Amino acid sequence: MLGRHGGASLAAMQLGGSVEWSIWSIFAAFEVGTIARVGRHVGARDSESARRAARISLAVAASMGTLLAVASPWLLEFLPLLAGEVSRDALAEARAYLGVTIAASPLVFVATINVATLQAGGDTRTPLVMGIAANVVHIGLNSVLIPRYGARGAGLSTATTFALEAALATTALLSVKRTVSLRARPGVSTREAETRLQTAQPFREEARMLGRIALPAFAERLLYHLGYVGYVLIIARLGDASMAANQSLISVESICFLSADGFGIATAALVAQKVGAGAPEIAAKIAKIGSRDAMAALTVFGFSALALRSVILPIFSADPEVLRIGLGAMPVLAIAQPFMAVAIVLAQSLRGAGRTREALVVSVIGAVLVRLPATWFFAITLRLGLTGVWLGSTCDWVVRCFLLVRIGRRAARRTTHYEVREADAAPSDTDSGDLPA
């Protein structure tokens, strides 16, 4: 819809959407701790501790979102510094979009953390239903607001959609019938439940554990998105047509990326639950299955998009230059999908297990040490333009995939070695003096 509104509106989303995603992703890093801690308590069948972790996460989400909303006018002042090669019209559209969406950060973060809590409890169907309802509203509002207000209309629609999702997710978590609920269960007096939940020591300990997992995730996302901003600035050097074409490709790839993230969230929740239940070997198998299934799905999606590229890309823009650039880069997009799928799911598995430091190292290597220099080399040095940009990002995903598979195999060997040692140390029937029946 933005592409039909005008080239500046679509190009603006390459800048505004990237900044918005980076800010939200960095400040919502605490959701990693939520999935790991709530999932672990669910696996250990400790509903009270799961509720405690969910409440702490929700309080942090609301606080961080409010802080970001208050700071949004100052953040927008830095936008021109990131957009030296962007046209004045595209910059104005980006500012209009971000002025609405960043101010809506409290709603975004409450929705994000409540959905993560539901998923950590093993409930992915409720978020699916909420997502369908929210997107129906989102599309309807976009069709009304974008033709009139351009990128600002898209921002208003996005903010309204997150408000709806926050309300629905909060309502769902208030039900005591759910695996994880923000309310105490029947059979425990309200005073007793509140006394347990509000005791300072358990809250401090849970907050400490959440922070221990979330802080490396915060650092990971901060460093990754600093690298991503540099990546976007390289794209901006190529001009508005390349930015608009890249935004079209990202819109196509988002189906793949978000699908992989869906596999990753489900895998992380199950890994956290199995770790909490004391079954690390099953957690390792779940990670392997999740990455395998995501790789199969994204390979099909990627090569289907490649086969239909001459039909898909004109949906976003009728500009011949934008189409030419986008069609040239589409084969690289397809090649990247299986590597991206495995990397996303295995990284989420590490986070679900609470191993956020290893995820941090892999992300920094891929996003900063590989993606930036590779993108500059292909796009600027070799003058391959947007195709070079996608070659650079593909190098990032290949390296991450390789590193995460190595980490996963090493962890699996450690688990197997531990099980063998435990079996050797366990007394047999003969050792204990028992005779066969």
Outline the structure in words:
- By secondary structure, the protein is mainly α.
- The protein has two domains: 1-214, no CATH class; 238-421, no CATH class.
- It has helices at 2-5, 7-27, 30-43, 47-77, 88-101, 105-120, 125-149, 151-173, 190-198, 200-236, 240-276, 280-307, 309-312, 320-352, 356-381, 385-425.
- Helix 10 (200-236) packs parallel to helix 15 (356-381) and helix 11 (240-276) runs antiparallel to helix 12.
- Residues 417-437 have low confidence and may be disordered.
Largest sheet: none
What number of domains?
2
3D shape? globular
Distance between the termini: 76 Å
Q: Which structural class best describes the helix and strand composition?
A: mainly alpha
Mean pLDDT: 86
Order of helices and strands: HHHHHHHHHHHHHHHH
Helical run tally: 16
Uncertain runs are 417-437
The tally of beta strands, per DSSP, is 0
